[in-house]
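Reopening: structure tokens for the zinc ion complex, inputs below.
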Amino acid sequence: MESASITFPYVEVLVDQKITKPLCYENRGLSLQIGSRVIVPLRNKLVKGTVIRHLAKPSFEKTAKIDSLLVEESLTADLMQLAKWMSDYYLTPYQKILVTLLPSSLKKKTEKEEQYFIERKGTTQQLTDAASKIFDPSNPQKKVLETILMHPKGLYLSKILELAQVSKSPIDTLVKKGLLDLKKIEIDRSYFQHEEFIKAPAKELNPEQQIALDRIVKKMQSEKFHTELLFGVTGSGKTEVYLQAMQRARDLGLGVIFLVPEIALTTQTIERVRSRFKEQIAVLHHRLSDGERFDAYRGILNGKISIVIGARSAIFAPVNKLGLIIVDEEQDGSFKQTEEMPCYNARDIAIVRAKLQDAVCLLGSATPSFETFYNTSLDKYGISILNKRAKNNPLPDVKIVDMRHEDDKKKGHCLFSDLLLDKIKERLEKGEQILLFLNRRGFFKCQVCTTCNETMKCEQCDVCLTYHKGENILTCHLCGFTIDPKKANCKKCRSNDTMRFKGPGTEQVERALKAIFKEARVLRMDRDTTRHKGSHDDLYRQFKSHKADILIGTQMIAKGLDFPSVTLVGILNADSMLHIPDFRASEMAFQLLSQVSGRAGRGDFPGEVILQTRLPDYQVIHHASHEAYIAFYNEEISIRNQFGYPPFKKMIRIVLKSLDIDLLNRYGAYLTGLIEKNKEKDVDVLPYTLCGLTKAKGEHRGQILIKATKFSSIQKIAVLIQPQKKIKVLLDVDPIQTFF
Ligand code: ADP
Ligand code: ZN
Ligand code: ZN
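Re-run output (same inputs, fresh job):
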């Protein structure tokens, strides 16, 4: 089969350029397989492409010859099979899928960043002498010398600062004295080569963890496809189960892919995996440079690397003998590609890939997606439950505060309830740490008149104009009306220059907090403070080493972070997510609230959560405060069933984009009609509307939502959509959000 095919004189190639039709080339004696990557002439350039078929005869007359074979990039047979499935399911041309699967797609942006690394220049004797000449044990230079003496291979500057608790200046002095050396190195490539390796032993599992592990191992041994949901509250020890399952997979000679949400791809997760498995690991993320990525890719292809950790696109890593795929926080939205086709969900690809390779797929979550939980109820997936926190500390105590009363008391929009302020004070006195969470998703900054309190609204739509920082405009999310914030005048009292931004951002919270607790050390983690590579890790380290008392943050602090000395979590605006007109709004709010609450009391002291809301009667708030997932699921799933939403029906979102809004609207209406006319009986077409995010990058955005019972009906609709001039069409299968 494969080996015989080498003799075929012609092949079909899909080039990486935007040509969806395969081209025919003559093979001049290269050993080509399906999935081989080649360089071929196209017009008068050389381009890269993928071999998709062998041919005995050329499919047209004058075929050019293949230029050369790219040995280190080939797509393995199983990935080619996966690509076929993806092309059918995500309604995306095969060529585009292949490009998605290539290692270059693991990269979005390459910004090389450097970090300082400290090595000793003097001998051990010289360093010891220098340290012993300083008598004061709190002398910064002495502390640095002692730290470096304990770490003979050297340390990152950030690490030394953390360990020695000093500023950079004593290090500079020691460099000047010729005792230390300070080097700049590219962080990722060298990260783990330099860091010392301390192997952490596996923990003895508790009975629930053991049962879960045994189930997974048994399935891996049988080498049959299986999907298992590991359902356990935060801190119940899921990660420990992943790590031991990975070890067992390795013992069986199987490869592993471990997917984590992009945001969790931080030092913390990586450190935990690193501490168990040393060299056979590759961490894939979009900040890798070309060199780094190809190092990793080559290692994976030749089997030197058998464990791959990464975000979404790591699911395409060509791991040998893949036996286990773990998806942590399987419900996480970052696994879904939404702005570009194929709009794949790496969680679903994980399951399909496991199926194609007779592997085990392990999905972990404290708040599983409804799709996943529904599948366990149908016995399509197995389920293992961890009911208790691993360290046996109780779940945090959650108090709901009705902010409407607080607003009344303070005669205006209140940011911190009295209860929360009391609790913060108490924690600061005890020297314990605090997390404050501010939800920004679906939460918009708007302008309010300082004279009459009127908000800046769109005259046509009566909704708040929201501020877009990038373009510095106020815009209406429904009609796209925009205005320069400086020119915005109050429409009610007609005052000039009275409009001010309202609605707290993390920055405002930080300022307000500092004004109340002047002594408190406050850190902020949001998009602004973590824009630079490594800054997320830095903030994390600072907070973990207790350089701050309070951490204020957005979604970023909700996921995966483990701070043992946090005993209080304040959720400032629990309900802003519920205002989003999306059938998943409650599900997402529940997930987020549970995740945030789960950050409290992970150490030895019990945790407490203050949940501030202006919608205290909402069931989702109530259930989230009890981590009552199943009660919440049962309630919501019946609503989904009643209204025919996923997982009961298949859904596809057709997003249309154009610079010309009239053209867009006309085409939207035309397409809706066309689909209505040609659809199968099981199809429901929702009317064409503009998206919640009406305009992005200068393009207007509209959408058509379609529900169907059978997937084949959706495939038939996709065929109706022909390429249009000046209109971009994006087909989002199984959309995770249907508004923005
Ligand atoms: P999850 O991934 O479910 O949030 P983790 O695996 O992070 O939970 O576990 C929470 C804490 O409990 C961690 O500090 C972990 O080291 C610890 N832990 C997990 N399993 C055990 C165990 N069997 N014995 C003791 N400690 C454990
Ligand atoms: Zn409007
Ligand atoms: Zn006014």
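The first helix runs from residue 2 to 5. The longest strand covers residues 45-55. Marking as resolved unless the reporter disagrees.
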